[in-house]
Amino acid sequence: MDSAQARLLFADQLGPHFDDGGPILLPEVLSPLRRRTYHRQKAHLILSALRHRAHELGERVELLRGDSYHEALSGRSGSVINPTSRGLRSLMADLSKTQPWEILPSRGFVTSEEDFSAWAGRQGSKRLLMENFYRERRVATGVLMTPDASGQKLPEGGKFNFDHENREPPPKGQSTLGVVSPWFPTEDDIDAEVREYLDHLESRGSVRFVGVDGPRLFPATRREALDALEQFVTHRLVTFGPTEDAALQQDWAMSHSLLSPALNLGLLDPWEVIHRVLEAYAQGEVPIASAEGFIRQIMGWRDWVWHLYWHLGEEFAQSNYFSHHEELPESMQNLDPEGVDSVCLSQVLGELRERGWTHHINRLMVIGSFALQRELNPQKLNDWFIDVCVDGTPWVMPANVLGMSQYADGGQVATKPYTSGGAYISKMTDYCTSCPFSPKIRVGEKACHFTAGYWNFLEGHKTSLAGNFRMAQPLAGLGKLKDLPELLAQEQQREGF
Ligand SMILES: Cc1cc2nc3c(=O)[nH]c(=O)nc-3n(C[C@H](O)[C@H](O)[C@H](O)COP(=O)(O)OP(=O)(O)OC[C@H]3O[C@@H](n4cnc5c(N)ncnc54)[C@H](O)[C@@H]3O)c2cc1C
Ligand code: SF4
């Protein structure tokens, strides 16, 4: 590559692994902020990261300000690492009609697009499963693999998957996990400038935000991202595995890494995260269940949803298997925890309002499950997640939201709908202990809307679900409910949650 050729970097390509030397073009454009209703802290984080990168690059960078990418990049040429969204790839195709742009293979993921396509091709007519993809990548890369006496590589600890040891309920009698706090940044002058700029845009009415402004909580620079990684691996990874799926009202971060914003901004390369975890494991600092559980998230899940974004095609975004068309309730649109009575929903909406971040089980088994039961439109939900999560991106959502959480693809991504009654939430969290509803009650004033909603969902979709063997047992249970008519009438009239 010609090192004098300018490299265009988008706002999610901010780490050194996107920079091969030479001049840099960094566009900062307003139209994405005007088109959508982002969480205030998401807008802040993106702008702060972009401006910090421009500051670090000094004379090598040209910061291109404009209303749209077309405007900012008009007449420019150079190279670009293939961007992460369909929108930006079609922008580059468009710009290439008038100016020469060299489009390089994508970076920022563990497996290349070529290797994924080759793997998918080898599956033939077999269903594509994350677990099979992940195991193949472990073997291909040698990550957490050890040779036996004959030289055959075997998974470290005797198996590929330690989910069975993980996924514990929260420890009894504790309101927090009691682990060392996550790493948090100290804001600087660039953050102050960004805050002033966003205040100005908001007061002029050019943009509208949701959620509260607050101190920046996630890394905006490479240095900060490395510090956050170090704090996680040294102090918090050890308890990551067992508590991966648990939630406590007083502990919003639990043992999660909070690294998704830094990874999705491109400040960290997933490979360096994996290598740091392997190092901690090799030094005996973390057990295999936590090391494997975490590496599975990065090398497995994160890459999986990225590759599915491309592999499943553009029409996947329109999937709506159950024909769900309900609007998102105002409490969700406004991130208003006061707008609901149930503790679980209120907790998660409150976390999103305060920080633009909530952990996986809250996204999947509280918001996602609620949306499925209440027949919210999957496309609107997908866009809502992109807007309100600081780590939300176009590529991360379709497989997670349409596939995994809404089963809107009819089962291409998940083998069954992820929804449950209150019993699951009660087992994995402490939310139900202070809720006005009871997870065990399905009809009446104290009925938990997740418990009633679960049966209501099954009844409403039993024909579509009948062919799914994983749903046979729940559907059989539905037939045994004596109070089903009252439950269905109650859910039909339900106004609040
Ligand atoms: C409905 C729904 C919405 C989601 N929205 C987002 C989102 O906007 N952005 C996002 O990055 N992730 C999203 N996820 C995946 C996951 O919930 C988040 O990556 C995770 O909660 C981020 O917090 P963390 O960094 O502390 O993760 P940890 O629990 O510490 O996990 C480590 C890392 O693994 C990766 N990871 C784990 N699971 C997934 C997954 N299913 N998809 C992609 N990456 C994964 C992330 O990079 C994460 O940082 C969503 C999942 C669901 C079900
Ligand atoms: S009782 Fe039901 S509504 Fe209340 S916190 Fe538990 S699961 Fe949520």
What features would you describe in this structure?
The longest helix is centred in the middle third of the chain and has 24 residues, at 288-311. This protein has three domains: 7-104, 3-Layer(aba) Sandwich (Rossmann fold); 113-183 and 219-311, Serine Threonine Protein Phosphatase 5, Tetratricopeptide repeat (Alpha Horseshoe), CATH 1.25.40.80; 316-493, DNA Cyclobutane Dipyrimidine Photolyase, subunit A, domain 3, CATH 1.10.579. The protein is globular. It has a five-stranded parallel beta sheet. Strands 6-7 form a two-stranded antiparallel ribbon. α4 (86-95) links the parallel β4 and β5 (101-104). The chain has helices at 31-35, 40-57, 69-73, 86-95, 113-122, 130-141, 189-203, 222-236, 240-243, 260-264, 270-282, 288-311, 330-333, 343-355, 360-373, 378-388, 397-405, 422-428, 449-460, 462-465, 472-479, 484-493, and strands at 7-8, 24-29, 61-66, 78-81, 101-104, 145-147, 153-155. The chain has 22 helices and seven strands. α2 (40-57) packs across α7 (189-203), α8 packs parallel to α11 and α15 crosses α17 (397-405). The mean pLDDT is 95. The chain has 497 residues and is mainly α. The N and C termini lie far apart (58 Å). The protein binds flavin-adenine dinucleotide and iron/sulfur cluster (SF4). Residues 342-344, 422, 425-426, 431-432, 435, 437-439, 448-450 line the site of iron/sulfur cluster.
The CATH topology of the largest domain is given as DNA Cyclobutane Dipyrimidine Photolyase, subunit A, domain 3
Strand arrangement in the largest pleated sheet? 3-2-1-4-5
Overall outline: globular
**Superfamily (CATH H level) name of the largest domain:** DNA Cyclobutane Dipyrimidine Photolyase, subunit A, domain 3
Q: State the major sheet.
A: 5 strands, parallel
Number of domains: 3
